[in-house]
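dude i think i finally got it to work??
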Amino acid sequence: MMKVKMKISGGFRNSDTADAIALIRSYISTIRKNGGNVIEGIVSAFHNFPWSPYLNKDICERVLLSHNLALT
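look at this
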C-alpha cells in the first residue's frame, strides 16, 4: 500500500511523513485483525487511551464515558 501511495501522490516529502503514515496504517490494521471497531480505536487513541487487544470492552466503555463519549 505504501508503494501505491507514493505512486499516486508523487512520493513523500520527508521520511517523517512516511513513518507517520506507516504507524497509523499499522494501528488500524491491528484493530481490524483483532475484530475491533476502527472508529472506536481512533477515538480512544485521541483521548490518550489507545486500543489494545488485551483490554476488554467494559474497560474501554468506562474510559470513553469518562470523556463524555459512548460506544455504539
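Helices lie at 2-9, 15-33, 38-46, 57-66.
im so relieved honestly
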